[in-house]
Design the sequence.
């Protein structure tokens, strides 16, 4: 059961990374802004400034978007592989699904805060708390064994 949980957690995390990559690759000017900020910071540390920072970022943001697009497809492929392995090692597909979903939600929250500066509202925290409660219930309840059916054999 432990490998199934680990694979499910990794699948959820990779799904969040794929979503963040999609937002970066398809977002309008976020990567360009990050590039300009990075060049400004790097230029101040090096004690010189480039007059053409925006020109360099105009050239760099397209390859960065393509790189994020490639990361999107790679993370999705690996995520589906881990999800399939999680389903194979888990005793219940419901446990795997809820574990992957919870991992995805939490990872998305942390990546959103880290990369985009997003904050979650109270309702989001209530929802994730309910998800975790359901996850705990699913993982604590052991699968019930079905009683074996005995066939009625009538001698007629």
Sequence:
């Amino acid at each position: 059961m432990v490998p199934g949980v680990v694979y499910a957690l990794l699948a959820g995390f990779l799904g969040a990374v794929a979503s963040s990559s999609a937002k970066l690759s398809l977002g309008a000017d976020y990567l360009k802004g990050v590039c300009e900020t990075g060049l400004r910071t790097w230029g101040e540390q090096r004690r010189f400034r480039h007059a053409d920072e925006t020109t360099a970022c105009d050239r760099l943001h397209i390859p960065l978007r393509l790189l994020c697009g490639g990361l999107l497809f790679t993370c999705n492929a690996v995520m589906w592989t881990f999800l399939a392995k999680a389903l194979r090692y888990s005793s219940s597909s419901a446990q795997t699904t809820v574990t992957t979903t919870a991992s995805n939600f939490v990872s998305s929250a942390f990546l959103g805060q880290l990369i985009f500066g997003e904050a979650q509202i109270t309702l989001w925290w209530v929802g994730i708390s309910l998800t975790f409660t359901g996850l705990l219930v699913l993982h604590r309840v052991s699968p019930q064994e079905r009683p074996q059916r005995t066939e009625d054999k009538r001698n007629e």
Q: What stands out?
A: DSSP finds five helices and no strands in the chain. Helices lie at 2-26, 30-45, 53-89, 93-116, 122-140.
